[in-house]
What we know:
Bound molecules: NADPH dihydro-nicotinamide-adenine-dinucleotide phosphate, magnesium ion
Radius of gyration: 22 Å
CATH class of the largest domain: Alpha Beta
Helix content: 55-70%
Oligomer: single chain
Structural class: alpha/beta
CATH topology of the largest domain: Rossmann fold
Number of strands: 9
Largest sheet: 9 strands, mixed
CATH architecture of the largest domain: 3-Layer(aba) Sandwich
Distance between the termini: 43 Å
CATH superfamily of the largest domain: NAD(P)-binding Rossmann-like Domain
Amino acid sequence: MAVVYYEHDADLSVLKGKKIAVMGYGSQGHAQAQNLKDSGLDVIVGLRPNSQSRRAAEEAGLQVTTVAEAAAAADIIQILLPDETQARVYREEIAPHLKAGKVLMFSHGFNIHFNQIVPPPDVDVVMVAPKGPGHLVRRMYVEGQGVPALLAVYQDASGRAKEIGLAYAKGIGATRAGVIETTFKEETETDLFGEQAVLCGGATALVKAGFEILVEAGYQPEIAYFECLNELKLIVDLMYEGGIKYMRYSISDTAEYGDVTRGPRIIDDHVRANMKAILKEIQDGVFAKEWILENQAGRPSFNALRKKEREHLIEQVGDSLREMMPWLKK
Ligand code: NDP
Ligand code: MG
Ligand code: MG
């Protein structure tokens, strides 16, 4: 089982007298920068010159500079830019200022694990990755709570990388909830697998297949939308609150019997073999290479797939049905 760290395992004073640069002020950046500041730490925010996020950061009382200036001034550099832009920004604006003894931090391992960023050997490389969206990381902190996070050390030049990572995790409130030790490899590979096989890829493909099969069999698309997409939220909310057992306790016995007898026929050995093949493409770097090249080429097939997906009947039916749901935000 995992090693978990809490408040008493982390010492905030490790970061006293150190300057922390948070690069980016999006979902994670705004939450981590504000939490660190409210923990009494010295934080600056690095943004591009015409950044849309600048105003919000300044309104929160944070000092904003360019990424290069922040990298030069800081002892600890947390990169919270979109993963696809990190390598370029690192190369052009951060690497020239990475003096020996500095700490380079991430909230996701992709660029380090797949060698898109190769830091010099004399800096610490640490990950603190909250297991929740930024707005929750901020809200929990303000309420005196925290969101769990993962901690990983990739490179320990100072011999104190873990201590620094734990102090950072405390600064954002994560040790109030619990910080789980992992590696860049484990975090990156499981994150990609989860989103591809289960959360995003698996779930949307399952929803669309169910919808298409009902529509092809002559059922109305509106009814198929409710049964295959809309009600998924109810089921997921129950699983999130109390696990699969709580969801099954809440649904009818008919639904539960159909679940336990039919579910394994949907996710059969053939599907499991496909999932294993997808895991292997992640582990051997085939997926990462494909995605990096796709970005370098200007995303031609990604853009085409995006367009095609948006034209699916389920999206058109959903648009008009959601008009009937006043509780949904537009
Ligand atoms: P966002 O897309 O929400 O924010 C990105 C920020 O980077 C924005 O402030 C944007 O500002 C800025 N930015 C974009 N391009 C550049 C550039 N070229 N130069 C300088 N600044 C730029 O990112 P997230 O917070 O979602 O993700 C950040 C990291 O956190 C990623 O590694 C991600 O994997 C990780 N993570 C994200 C989680 C989440 O909940 N979203 C959860 C856990 C980890 P602007 O465009 O205004 O300049
Ligand atoms: Mg993830
Ligand atoms: Mg991910």
